Structures are given as C-alpha cells and as structure tokens.
C-alpha cells in the first residue's frame, strides 16, 4: 500500500484535508481546526473509536493524515501490513501511569493483587513494562514492546494482570487493586495525575517509541500544508488545551521527521527480527 | 472540560439524523435482502414450497458464516467489497454497507423462524388454486406470518440501532457513537444518559408502532 | 372414453419403515366428464388422500393419476398450475387465510386467475350473497362460526367456475337447510355447466341427492364402486353393507327395535323398497323414470291379498340418485299361516327381514343386515346397560377405515 | 329446581360500534341435571358461543350463567378452573395440540386432573380403543384424517369422566357408523352416570337419537325450546319449521316431488305421523311408552275403510327422543269423492298436506309446510334450471342465523 | 511479532473453553429469564391468558430501555449491580452477568414473537380442561411453539457468541476477544481467520442441532 495515487487533493482545490483521529471530541481539536481554518486550511476530522482503522484508511488514501498513535504502534502496523506509513511530526509523549483507589502507594500493593491494563497491543506491552519497572512483575527475557500477559513469569511476580479496553481501566478501579490508565482517560475519569502510584519517564530514551506522531503516506512528508498543520499543533493555544486534556501530564515534543523515521526504522527492525 | 449542551446539542441532533439515515437504509436494504434469504431458507427446506437441498444448505451455511463474525472484524473483512461498491471503507456509508449485509443475514434467520409455524393447509389451498410459488410466497406466506414478522422487524430495527453504535470504529457517526465517544469514553455520564435516552425514545416509538401494526395484522 | 380423471394403480404411502401408512392402495378408477362422483368410507379410509392426488397436492408414490389427459404425477409444478387452475377444491379443514377478510379469501383465486378488480368485486359480491355472508365480507376468518368458515371455503372453490370441483366434506359444518342450498347449487353447476364434481362425504343426504356414482373406500382401497343407486340398493362388500345400513338409518337399530317391540308386540318384518323389485308380476307399474315396483303399495296390496293387517312402525322411502329406495318395518297382525305366506310372497320380489315377535325375536339386530343376507350377531353398537359406561372395554368403535 | 346450567338473560356481544355482533342475545334457559340437551339452529346463529358461555371460554357481556349453582360470569380464573375440571368439551374445530401425540392429547386432561402415570396409560388405552385409534396412539395430529382428529377430541373430552359434557358438532366429521357408536356412548354415560350433555348439532341423527330437549337458536336468540319430540313434531316458529323440515327430509323437496309426480300421476298427500295423533277414537293403542296412534296403520286402516288404494311413495317414520315421528307421502287411487272423504277423515286426527294431482298440483312445495300451516311460496331452495348457474343472483342462501 | 501457533494455540484453546463457558451460562440464565419475560410479554397482552396492562407496559418498556443501550455502555451501566452481585466488574463473570441481563431482554422479544402465532384454540382447549394458567404456559403454549422457539434460541446463541466478542472490554476472554486482540488489532489475518473459523464451526454445529430439533418439534 502507501502509494499516493489515490490520495485526495491536499487542500487547495477546496477538498478538505482529512485527518483520522481517535478522540475528536477533545477540545483542542476544535481549537486546532479553527486555527487551521484561519490560515485557509480546511481540515476535516474523521473520528475513529478503534485504533485499528485509521492506518489502513490512510494507506488506502481515504485519509490524508492521521494523528492518534505513537511510533511503537505505527511500527507494529507497518511491519504487520508491510506498509510504509511515515511520521511527519511529533506531538507529545504521554506517560503511562498506575492508579489505585484502594492503595496509597506502590508498596501497599499486596502480593497477588490484580492490575487492570489496556488490552490494545502496544499499550498492553508498555503497561507490562511499566509494571516490571515498578517491580511488580517479571517478564520473560526482560520483556519488550511486544510482550503479552502470557510472558509474565508468575513465580517471580507479585501481581496478576487483567487486560481490558483502554477506557475500562479507569472504570475497573472499583474492582481491582490498581489500573494502568492511559493518559487520555485520566482527566475524564476524574483522577489527578499526581495521584499516580507510578509512571514511566517521558524523558528517558526508553520512552522514545512512545512519541506520538502525525503520520502521512510515504512520499508526502514534505507537503507544506501538512507541515503547517504539524506546526499549528504546537501553538500555545492548542498545546494548552491538549495539556489540559491530559491532566497536565503531556510532555510536548517536536522531533523532526527524519529523527522520528530513524526511531521508527529501528523499532521496525527489531519487530521484523522477532517476527 | 465537559462541553455544555450548546456545543453538544447540534452534534447530538446531527447524530440523530445520522442514526436515522443509517438505520433506515440498513433496514430497507438489509431487511429486504433478509426477507428474500429468510423466505428462501424456509421455502427450500425439505417438504416446503421450493424444496431444494442445495440452495438450503448453501444459504444455511452462508448465514452461519457471516453472522458470528464479530462486527468490527466483519467491517474490515468486507472492506475490499465496500471499497469497490461505495468507494470508501470509512464513514457512515461504509458502515451502512457492512450493516446491510450483516442485517440481511440476521433478518434471514428472524424471517425463517417466523415462517416455520405457518399453517401448511393455507399454502396448500393456494397451490390448489394454481397460484405460482412466487405468488404464494408474496400473497399468502408472508401475509399469513405478518404479525410475527412485524415484531421480528421491530426487533431487527433495534438490533440495527445497536449495531450502528459501532459505526465509530470506521469513522462513522450516529447516536451510539456519540454516546460512546462523547459520553462513555469521557466518563461524561450526563451525555451518555441523555443520548441513551434519545436512543430509547426512538426505539420505544418504533416498538409502539410495531406492536400496533402486529396487532392489526393478527386479525383475531 | 370420456373419463376426465383416471387413477391407474395409484398408491400413496405416508412415511416409511414399520410406521408406513398406505393411505391410498392401488386404486384404479375412472371418473367421467360431467358426473358427480361420490367417495364414501369410514374415517381414515383414505378418501381425502385420494382426492388430493387429483390436483397433486399429494404426489402418488406409484401409479398414475390422469387428469384431463395429463398424468399429474409426472408434471412439473409450472405445468401443474395450469391443471390446478381448472380445479376448484373445498377443503375438509377449510384452510382459509387468516390474513385476509372473507371477501379477500373468496377473491383470491380470482386474483390468481387474473380477473380485473372490478370483475372481482362483482363476482365476490355474488358468491358471498349466495353463501349468505354478504354482511361478513369484511370480517376475518377468526371471527366466523364453523359453518360460516365452511361457506367461505365453498364460495372460494366456486369462484373461478372451475370445470372440476373437489369437495372434501363440503357441507359437514352446515345446517341441513344450507346444505340443501349448496347441494342444489352443485347439482345445477353439474347439470348446466357440465362441471365434474368429486364429493367426499359421510352424509347420506349428499350422496343421496347428488351423486351419480360412488366409490366406497376401506383401508386405502376402493372396495366397491358403481352407480350410487346400485351400491346403496345392493351393496356387495361387508363394509359397504354396514356403511349403507348405518347411513340410511331406515332400519331400526337394536335399541329402537326393543322399544318398537314394546309398543308393537306382533310379528315384525322389514321389507326393502327398491326400484325394479317388481312384486308379483302384473302389479308393477313402470314409467319413464323407472319402475315403481317395490314401493309401499305392493306391501299394502300383498297385505290385502293375504288378509293380514299391517302397521308401518319404522322405515323410510327416499331417493338415491333420483330413484326411490328405502325400507319399511311393518308389524303384521293376523293368522300366522297367512303371515308366513305373505312373507314368502314378498320374498320372491324383494328382501324381507323377519324380525319375529316380541317374545321370540328371530334375531336381535337388523342394522347390519341388508339385502337379505343372514342375520349376524350384533357388532356392539347398541347400548349395553350393564357395561362399565366410561370404561369402553366392551364397545370400542371398530377401526373400519384406517389403513395399517 | 334441579337445573345444572341456567342462563339468565345472558348476552354476548363481540366487537363494538356498528360492527358489534350480538352472538348470544338475552338467552334465558335451564338445562336440567342429567338431561341431554340439544342446541340446533342455522350456521352463525350463536350455538357455539352459547355453549362457550357455560365453561366461561367466553365471558357473558351481561346476564348470568349459573353452572352448578355458581355464576361463572363472576368467578375468578382460579375458581373457574374447578368448575371447568368437571366439564368436558368437544370442540367444533377439534383444537388438538400439534405438539403432542394422539395419546398425549388424550392423556392431557388426566395429567391436569392429577392422575398417576400408570392410571393415565391405562385410561388412555381404553379411550383410544374406544375411538378406534389404538394404532395411531403415537401419531401426531398433523398426520391424522379429519375424522381421526375429531375422535381424538372426543376421547380427550371424555377422559376425566366429567359430569357435564359440551359437544360442539362432535360427530360432524365422522362416518355414520362411528357416529352411531359415539352417540350410543353418550347416551350410555348420560343414562348410567347421569352426565349432563349439551350437544350442538345440525345432524338430525344426533338430535333424534339422543336429545331429550332441544333449543332452537336464531340470530343469537333461543326462539323455541322444549322436549325434542314436541319441537320436532309441532314446531311453532317459522325458522324452526323450516329447520325441522329440512332436517327430517321426510317430505319430498320440489324437485323430488316433480319426479314423484312423473311416476305417480295420481292424487298425492303427505300425512304426518306423530305420537299421540290418535286417528279416530277406538283405533289408538296406548302402551307404556306412548301412544302408537298416528303411525302408518291408521292410514292403512283409513284407506281400507274408504275403499281407496294407496302407494307409499316417499317419507319416513323414525324416532325422536325414542318416540315415533315422521310422515308418509302416499299416492291415492280411487274414487275422487272417497279420496276427499279419506283426507277429511285423516285431517281430524293429524296433519295432512294435499299435494293434488300431477296435472294440477295444489301447491308446489311441501318442504316448508309443516303442521298443517297454509301452503306458502317456495323459498327458492330448489333448482331453477333457467337461472344463471354460476351467477347465484337468484338463489342466494338466505342468511338464517347470523345476528345483525 | 506474529507469535506462532505454539504460543497462540493454548490461548486459542483456552478461548474456546471461555467462550463455551460464557455462552452456556448466558444462554442458560439469560435464556431462561428471557423465556419468562417473553412469555409474560405475550401472555399479558390484551386478550391473552394473563391479560394485564400494567405488567405488559412495564415489561415492554423495560425491554426497550435495556435493549438499545450499546453493549459496552451497558456493561459499565450495570457495573454497580455487577459489583454487588459478582464482586467484580471485570473478567468473564462480569461479562456473563451483563450478557445474561441483555440476553434476557433480547430473548424476551424473540420468545414473544414466536408465541404470537400460536393457535388460540389449543389454549382454549386446555383452559376448558381446567388447567391452570401456569400449566397451560408450560405444557401447552411453549410446546406448541417449540419449533420456532428452538430456531429462536439458536439465533440467540449466535447473538450471544457475537456479544461475547466484546468481553475483552472488561477483561474477559473468549474467542471473539481473541480474534480481535490477537488477530484483528495486530493485523494478523491468519489468527483472525483461524479464530473466526473456529467460531463459525461452533455456530454451524449449534445451527445443525437447532435445525434438527426444530424439525423434530414440528411434527408435520
Ligand atoms: N370472536 C368473534 N368475534 C366476532 N364475531 C364472532 C366471534 N365469534 C363468533 N362471532 C360471530 O358470532 C355469531 C355466532 O357465532 P357462533 O360460532 O356462535 O355460531 P354457530 O351457531 O356456532 O354457527 P355454526 O353452526 O356455523 O358453527 C356469528 O355471526 C359469528 O360470525
Ligand atoms: N401426512 C400424513 N402422514 C402420515 N399419515 C397420514 C398423513 N395424512 C393422512 N395420513 C393417514 O392416511 C390415512 C388416510 O387419511 P385420509 O385423510 O385420506 O382419510 P379420510 O378417508 O379422508 O378420513 P376422514 O373421513 O376421517 O377425513 C389415515 O390413516 C391417516 O392417518
Ligand atoms: Mg378426510
Ligand atoms: Mg359453531
């Protein structure tokens, strides 16, 4: 896939630029599209409730851009589908954190506790890594970005995990000892980021696969309109709204496209090697 | 962070429109195809009007292949077909396409079920008059089973509304999606509640009509 | 050969294995164009199944069923449709469409036949008026009485003026008056339009007043068939005799006989009245329609001749296929020798069944003795006041008609 | 008062507004314990509805229906159950459970009544043997013939030996022989167990052979009721007269009369034969059961006395409620004055209908003239060979029974 | 990245077990409750055995309130109840709880539909024998409608398998979840395909049985 022949025109001819997102209801998207409109760029957001669809849709030319994933996810997609979607700009890193209603600190989490984690592939692996970092469990071979719950070494682990839909991790707090909750849902669920028992470090190199990116079809990295949109995201108004939506945990970043591509290539290489 | 209704109101309204659009086209297309499939499923059974083991087996298996596929997987699976037909695999029309196919197979079973209990004597009477099989199906079989069929289609309608909630998976809209995206995923229970209420109101209305028509059709 | 319906060794087996039912068993039969053909027989004998072979609602398991020159067992559905379009059928269970009004039911075959809406409306109006349901035109079958439903079924079968009419117990739910009207109509369409009618019935009235020929079925087989009059007047098979006897009801049943004896202690005889049974020689008058021999006058004349006094205590003379038939039970009073001579005299011309006198009945039952066959033991249909009444052990209805 | 079922101004209206049907209209009627009560009337007259009021399958719109001392219109369902458990019902449309075998259907009321499995098996066996369906015990209703279904319905209704039995056209689908068996059984359970039986029927045999009293319904009303014999022998209402005439069939219908005249050109009369119609005075013999007056002997005696020759050409003498009843149509040959004297003589004792002679019939029809009422014009039930045969315009079945 | 079947095989097997477990409990509990509700919906209708406008209206509305709620929202909405009853809102048992309730309401409609066409004469016959209304329902009404009911429950079974695919949302498992999480979400079409095949095989088997029993129950 990935050939741009079927691509919709990019803005000038009056056709809107279609951006696939997950969570178009967030306030910052409205600010973003308003800003774009001021610059004469007609943006149409296509909202998906499922991560699986926006990449194929982009690849098939039904979208011009998408912005919902981090590099890790993109790499997994590209490898699985032999695709070459390309990151054209970064947005932010969202730390993944552990929350609990029952326990005040990491140390309080008892032996045999049940932890809810997101069940989508990349967040799941990332959550397992976070838990491993927190010393709650041990993964076979140290774990990586494709680890599964079945990779947990039960004898060496303090807790068990239950994968649930990402948004359900917050709901599940009533039923489990603790949950790994995606940033998106933290604020909505009425949680305070500072209450997190543990979270991964956005500035560590280990977090680099989790840089969220704008993605386009290969060959369209240099589209100026696209570049302008990437920039618009980092205007103060948008960043502020976006930060608010993440409960202030978002760590904005604007790595250049080629650096992102480099990281992507590296991850894809690893994945392919494992495949 | 919770938008107020002045922002959400128009989106909600638009969602209502979208749902009605999706559901009516789906029930039209899927419902009609389902009627055809369902009648065939019934009529090609052994001992029935169009007895035909091959057609029955093929249909029976086909329906059972399509129906249990989880809908999000199904949407993706029919993607190439959707693309060829609708020109896109995302958005409401793509959802309608997938929903119509799924609805056709679901309806087939509902229709089949409702025809099974038809009095064979009445069909015989029509055969004895020299009515063609197609005519018998249209003017006897279906009218005789109309009351349960109407309830079946009411049931289907609700199933489709339910199914349309998944439209968001492929970038579609509608009430279900609105409730999930603006309400449920954002833990905004007020929005969820109001939206669900709207859905329920629509369903309730449909059911009222369905019950009323079914009662009319029963002629007892 | 003008037969419009021919069965050639037609057999219909339901089910298979040990439970198989031979509902119709090697029937060979011809029904002529323009006749009214009656099918009688005990419940379960296979009458309905036989008739359903004609319009191929059931397909014969083997043999042929030729209707209008075509073997319907070999026709495809599309070809059958044309044959069926010319056949009207009144169903035993009515088979009305619950989803259509009375008018809709009656109009349905017209729709199938492609009548215009206007013609349909007119025709339906006529038919409903005929069956007396004009005011129920817009009612649904669920709101009709049994007889009303049957009348709708009759109107529907007649709607397209078919050239063959199959009537399966067409008047079983009707009062006698309405039955007469329906029969009169059937007779008329037969006579004037030459419609061939096959009637299944257990009602004597129906056979008596309209059937030209009858077939008697038992265990899926046609055990006897011929002119209605002949079959009734001189039934050959045992089952036919019993059927005719219980159908005609012109002979006293055992319990009636008991009561008669109570009132009439003298010698009683039952004399068969039959067309063509000339009593004596010079006495029988013959006219264009048929001999009047054997009707009551001969008995009266004989009584007079032998100086015997007679009281008619039971019996009936009616018409079968428009010819007189019946029997009279007469109490005789007079000299014993004279009575014996009278009986001997009567016996030369017709069947006489001697019931003896009250104190020394020569046999207990007459109901199953027809045509002068020797008296037989009661088959148990009478009252047995001593039997366990709700126990049934002693007086089971004999299974007459059910095939194995 | 020993009445076990009493209707007090009972009314049942179906529907509302202009389409409302008064199926049962202010009926007041008592049915005594232990009697067999017949309900007759034209199709749609309200017979089934009336009977369904008894076990409250329909609730009366107004009025009372008292069964065994309890007004069923006021009972709650749970109380009704007890009443219903003592009432067996044979349905006009059989109403068999398609999901149960024949044995299952018959055993169902026993299950409801709490019989043990073993007792049920035995009882079902007896019942099935009685109705001749032992070999169909494991068949499902869909595979039965019409008469077989009805027999299952009969067996089911009798299963628990109820003290009241409601039989709605219980023998309409049965052959005459089986009908006789069923009637014999009903008579027996009535006589020996005192079961009260309400029979709806249009079959003369049924009324004749078992009903003690009858009610005649028309348009939802009971227009006449009384001892079966009296109602048949001397029907008061016009509808009853017509019903009785067409039910008895002992008088020649117009077309039969035409044929009779053809064969019998002489003067013809129809003489009613009725218990208690003493002809002359010294002539009538009376015994324990009832007078034998009016039976054929009187006609014969009168013929002899007046020197007139007679030929019995039509008619029948049968029993109603175990008493003789009927009519004989006789061709008279002899001196005109003697014949007139004979007729005058007979008229003093019974009803005589003068049919005149072939060339100058005194009236065309006798079928609707009963009990000496003046001759009336034909109501059109005969053949009109000139009428448009499939057109019906001229001989619609008159709507006798349907309430407005 | 694509795990081979040696890893996935056991999970797939476990998923089959989980699906069978979830589906059988749901069809047991939900199917039974649905039968009760459905019979009540039918019987409390005007003119029927238990005619009762209040019960009918309440049930009719209740069914219409529950049914159209998108299942993922419904799972969350009944969460407090689930917590109180099952002790947890996640995992298979929580899903079974929510599915059973939903299935009960869905079944109610299916059952109602299939009872509508029952011949009232047969019910009358049973009433005339003095059978109690409960007995009539159990021994006449349901057996008479058995053939369509069996097809209805087969239909339901497939619906439940479909519903169980959403178990993953709240930490449940089963085949549908396996197909989505290990196949669909990872773009692993082989896993998706194989898993869907397994689902279809189960459904096909259920349908075969259903058809066979329905045929038996028809007695024609
Ligand atoms: N459920 C109903 N709704 C409306 N009208 C009805 C209903 N049931 C019966 N009727 C009408 O009531 C009248 C009496 O019906 P009923 O069944 O009592 O007649 P019947 O005397 O038994 O006739 P038949 O001899 O034809 O069975 C008929 O005109 C019929 O159409
Ligand atoms: N579909 C069927 N399957 C199995 N057996 C059947 C079927 N239809 C009829 N039979 C059996 O075939 C025999 C003949 O049935 P049929 O209906 O022809 O009898 P009938 O003479 O019309 O009787 P009736 O006078 O009672 O209507 C019966 O024993 C019946 O049980
Ligand atoms: Mg029959
Ligand atoms: Mg009736």
UniProtKB/TrEMBL annotation, chains B, E:
GO terms for cellular component: plasma membrane. InterPro entries: AA_ABC_Transporter_Permease, MetI-like, MetI-like_sf. GO terms for biological process: D-methionine transmembrane transport. Its main location: membrane. It is found in: Cell membrane. The chain crosses the membrane at residues 20-42, 54-78, 90-111, 136-160, 191-214. It is a multi-pass membrane protein. Keywords: Cell membrane, Membrane, Transmembrane, Transmembrane helix, Transport. Pfam families: BPD_transp_1. Residues 16-210 form the ABC transmembrane type-1 domain. Belongs to the binding-protein-dependent transport system permease family. PANTHER family: ABC TRANSPORTER PERMEASE (PTHR30450), TRANSPORTER, PERMEASE PROTEIN, PUTATIVE-RELATED (PTHR30450:SF14). This is ABC transporter permease.
From TrEMBL, chains C, D:
SUPFAM superfamilies: ACT-like (SSF55021), P-loop containing nucleoside triphosphate hydrolases (SSF52540). GO terms for molecular function: ATP binding; ATP hydrolysis activity. Pfam families: ABC_tran (PF00005), NIL (PF09383). Residues 5-244 form the ABC transporter domain. InterPro entries: AAA+_ATPase, ABC_transporter-like_ATP-bd, ABC_transporter-like_CS, ACT-like_dom_sf, MetN_ABC, MetN_ABC_transporter-like, NIL_domain, P-loop_NTPase. Residues 356-366 have a biased composition (Basic and acidic residues). The keyword Transmembrane helix does not apply. GO terms for biological process: amino acid transport. GO terms for cellular component: plasma membrane. Gene3D superfamilies: 3.30.70.260, P-loop containing nucleotide triphosphate hydrolases. This is ATP-binding cassette domain-containing protein. It comes from Phytoactinopolyspora halotolerans.
